[in-house]
Design a protein that fits this description.
Order of helices and strands: HHEHEHEEHEHEE
Strand order of the largest sheet: 3-2-1-4-5-7-6
Number of strands: 7
CATH topology: Rossmann fold
Bound molecules: S-adenosylmethionine
Distance between the termini: 34 Å
Radius of gyration: 15 Å
Helix content: 25-40%
Number of helices: 6
CATH architecture: 3-Layer(aba) Sandwich
Largest sheet: 7 strands, mixed
Number of domains: 1
Structural class: alpha/beta
């Protein structure tokens, strides 16, 4: 499902829908990622820009040209350089054995796309590279504080373990937390927080 127009329209405003500050789970684990970093569904750039301010080289991929244009403006305003690529993750082919970390923040994708993309993610990580994800969990379905209303796009630790069998979980949580990320994500939410490593 390629929903470029939906996201281009949502981002078509001066305001940053999810704010300009990085996701707090990423910030908390900022010492984990080594570069280069691939950020899936980067959107308006808040996470890529944060990683770049920490000296990491970052490629942010998203289907929204409007979102990634805002990402480049944010990078410029913070005095950092990020690489961005407009692509549908259903077709995206990351370089193999290349990334020190792959970050997935609120990158909710249908299982049909994940089943194609996640094996490529495993291959794209360098040995010892990490995959770091925060996403709304299936328990979020009954809440109106953000996230897709489609259980197939919501995550669980069990789905992640099954869909990324070649990465070893370092930390795997399903929790409730207060999320405050622009207008787009606000309030108590059920999330999955997952960090896994590729074997050396
Ligand atoms: C909830 S937003 C999260 C944006 C960003 N990760 C953040 O945390 O601020 C979801 C993002 O997924 C992107 N997206 C959805 N489907 C996609 C697809 N098939 N390929 C690439 N990007 C996609 C949207 O354009 C949007 O930027």
């Amino acid at each position: 499902m390629y929903n470029k127009n939906f996201w281009d329209e949502r981002y078509n405003a001066d305001e940053y829908l999810y704010g300009t500050e990085a996701n707090s789970f990423l910030v908390k684990n900022a010492d984990s990622p080594q570069g280069p970093v691939l950020s899936l569904s980067e959107g308006e750039g808040r996470n890529a820009v944060f990683l770049a301010t920490r000296g990491l080289s970052v490629l942010g991929v998203d289907c929204s040209e409007v979102g990634l244009a805002k990402a480049q403006s944010l990078a410029q305003s913070r005095g950092v350089v990020i690489e961005t690529e407009v692509a549908d993750l259903a077709e995206f082919q990351p370089k193999e054995n290349h990334f020190g970390a792959i970050v997935s923040i609120s990158a909710h994708l249908p299982s049909a796309i994940r089943h194609k993309l996640y094996p490529l993610i495993e291959k794209a990580l360098k040995p010892d590279g990490i995959f770091l994800l925060e996403a709304y969990s299936e328990s979020q379905l009954s809440k109106n504080t953000g996230g897709p209303k489609d259980i197939d796009m919501l995550m669980t630790v069990a789905k992640l373990r099954q869909e990324l069998p070649n990465l070893k979980p370092i930390s795997a949580l399903e929790i409730e937390r207060e999320v405050s990320e622009g207008k787009g994500h606000t309030g108590i939410a059920s999330v999955v927080q997952y960090i896994a490593r590729k074997a050396v």
